[in-house]
Sequence to fold (79 residues):
Amino acid sequence: MRGRLQTDNASDNELVRQFHQWRISKGYGRGKAVEVFKEKVGFSVSYRTLEKWEQGVSNPSNSAEFLLTQFLEKIKKEK
Fold:
């Protein structure tokens, strides 16, 4: 449904779900989350791309999944 605010994490991708859980646990919006992602892995993902991933509209490419894996490993080490 166009224009509907989606608060649920509808992605079937486990890496996206983990990223979403991290983002929510930090209280970050998508904008802040993509800033931190770029800071940690040196690669920029757009707000809209993250939104599409989280809503299950699209899935990350293989290279984006690799970077998500790197990101999630880095944040686990920081705990």
